[in-house]
Write a structure and sequence with these properties.
The chain is built from 18 helices and 21 strands. With 675 residues, it is α/β, with parallel strands linked by helices.
Amino acid sequence: MRKMIKGISVCNPVDIERDYLMYTVDYAIKHGIEHMQFIGPIHNPEKGNIDGMTIYRKYSCFNISKDMEFVYNTIRYVNEACKKAHDAGIKTYVWHHELEVPPNFIEVYPEICNSYGDVEVTHPIIRDFLENKLQDFFSEYPLIDGIILTLHETRIPLLKLKNQKLQKKDRVKYITEILYDTCKALGKELIVRTFASIEEDYEMMLQAFEEISTDLLVMDKWTQFDWSLTAPNNTFFHKVKNNPLFVETDIFGEFFGKGRLPLMLKEHIKEKFEYCEKFNPAGYVSRIDRGGCDPFGEVNEVNINIMNACMSGENVDDAIESFFKEKYPKAAKEVMNLMEKTEHILRKIIYLKGYYFSELSAFPSLNHSKNHFYFEMMRNNYDIASDEWFVPKNWERGSIESVIFEKESAAKESAELFEQFEALKGKIEENDYQNLWEKFANLKYVAAIWCELAKSFIYYTKYFETSDIKYKNELVETVEKLRVLNNEGKQILGNRFYCTQLNLFDDTDNSAELVKNFTEELMQTFEAEEKQVKELDSKKLTDYVICGGATEGHKIQKEVNFSDTFLIDGCICRIPGSGRGTNWSTVNAHGWFSYLVKIVPNYKNTIRISAGSTGTSTDVKITVGNNEFKFYGEPSKNAEFIINYVSNENENYVRIRFDRISPNTPHIYTIEIMR
């Protein structure tokens, strides 16, 4: 078997903790790992990236925004770990996202902004800051071999900036080249992550990287777009031509349990590894933890053994059998047989006939459910027009009865698995038994809860399709079942209950009450949507859209993951962007969404749009067909836009698109096509 880089990434994405970090270094030494990546609290605006772990020198005035205790601890812990790793011949790297500046950087240097208010990336201060930041970082961490660069999820969204002197590709090249040249001058490496969901962006970034250097290692996930079991193999690998490919894997389960559910990924890892080997990658780096959970010392550690066996050319079945014999000597075969079934069951929970139904990183929010079309897919005549990455091509749902059967069978199989496990009590050491009990109990409740989740989408949608009160009653009953299951899970499992795990980006007290939050918001939205439907139906309109409603339909299209929905003052709305982003970055800066609405052909159609904003005014670009209309300075509440659209004689539908065009986020409530 050819020589390949064998890597792991750790501390994903949490504060660096010394004992755990040193444990992972010892693990790497023991298992022949030669490449380690430290991720750290990458999304924390105060601690994330190399910015949060570095003491600036030239730009020392911005150190006041740092958590200095975290900085000093991280310097000690990472340098200690790197020394041990380097003594064993292991290279070490730190994750970093750009373009990233301190919170008040623009206030101190307002000259870096253009007429739109976005940072002009070519301003000399930006170059100087980036160069000095890297110099300061490697001065503090002299044994770090390089950084892993991602050009997304930052305060300054490089690919989305307005009024720039450089086009997207040239911006990517410009910023990456600054970092590459600085690293090279310091004797360090730069590894680049594409992390692009849109194909044209992926190709553009690869071209930019290739123009900088064909020696740049391009790191990308082995599933296309993200980590779900439902995501396909990464077909974008074909586009990596002249740079070496470095494959990033998730063997912990970020989107399928995040370590709290029993999961043996035997088929997933084998199939993905076999696919990736066709491209002769330089090697693999595997995420082995997430959000403070790790697999060491428990049953899901088997996945690390499977991956190690694949990379070493060893027999996977032998590696699995050896793991269970060592871990559970008196019940090895029984536990192994139970774990063999977990991948199949979890696929049934998170798939819906091959659709990315619902990730298992957490119980979904209502906004997540609407933005992933979970209501739309339950329509009698479903028609999902978006080309987003989680929508399978030529997807066929089948009957609603088959949907319910799929979810109910997963719940039944999970309950049976839990019973079979409990019969092993006494054959497994007490601590190991308790850990396994929590995992299989969580699987039982997760399967039952996700089953009722699917039914809530079905009954909600059916009610608005038929106006039949029985579906409203069934929705209420399903919501109550969700609450009962949630309460049972909390009572039995306490803070180990899967559905109370904290939201990564929300530290509020309510972040743990995911099911409770969902059911409350679902019913509030249902009541609001029911009221708005009655009001709009009474107007005898040609067509209307309740933007952000669960049944908004109209072949909605939107920017991938960037079009949130809200319930404001009793009315539902959608925004072109991410509301969460406003709290920790401006990644949401320039989103869009659109609908295909019915119009009268050969007629002057009057389009009325109700809107608002949490900013100082409602600013939005509205495109009707090929006609653009820009509105600035409109009221931040109760704004109304009237657009006249003259259709041709064969035109029965027109697409209406909404774009964010200023720092003020527009809220779009309803669209009315008036007769």
